[in-house]
Amino acid sequence: MARIAVVGSLNADLLVRVARHPRPGETLHGSGGEIAPGGKGANQALAAALLGGDVAMVGAVGDDAHAGPATALLRDAGVDLGALRMVAGATGLAIVAVADSGENAIIVIPGANGTLGAAAVEEATGTIAGADIVVLQGEIPRDGIERAAALATGRLVVNLAPVLELARWVLEAADPLVVNEHEAALVLDQLGLPAARDAQAAARALLGAGVRSAVVTLGADGALVADGDGVTHVPSPQVEVVDTTGAGDAFVGALAFRLSQGERLREAAAFAARVGAFACTGHGAQPSYPRAGDVLPG
Ligand code: RIB
Fold it and tell me: If you take atom 6 of ligand 1, which residue's CA is the nearest one?
């Protein structure tokens, strides 16, 4: 089976529910307080593994009490954690506040994720260079992302969330670059290009800038897939939204899984949109992800 290596963050997510998000300077009562596994890298790795992918995770956790919860579901799902480092200090921590509307606000304290620079990534050369698909995000240091991209011999899926400044060749090597509309605008600005008038134009501009293929996610409206065949809209099924946390990561993990099965980008994205919608119907990130065989909306 084709192998997926995810190089990225693992966090312990502190889940908080609020009726609405507080304004600056305001104190509100909330509920919840559970710790759930998260981190964009780990979320994407888990999403791909639960669907049946052969997945390895390259990342770092601290030597604290959060390391166990942060990795629990990856272990259960059989993700290869041989390239996971344990470093002195704290595991990444995310405070995830979800409002009744389902919208979230997240503060991330990188902790051990901040140690995953070029030298640490280099230690996982075998895992990265041996993978058919390498998945990257923006929650580890820039030099770690660039080193992983340089070591990759397989297809590179780059989800630039959050956006950080990367060497242009990494963006150009992405196949696809996955960004939401807001992130697409920041990337275009980074590339020295004018703001696009809409998501279609942004997707085209990314291709025009030399990115091999791009997926611009549109939340409940699905995604735009831009490649040599043009720009295609893939819809998202409409669901009763409980919590959008990690839905974008579920999308990326599912996309990587289907690409690892040899599917074309637009079909893989159409499937990923259904997985992302499923992930909005439950609380938290990883606990809301579907397994192979679960009935997906749409
Ligand atoms: O994308 C959702 C994730 O962002 C959360 O799991 C949190 O850990 C942050 O990394």
Answer: 38
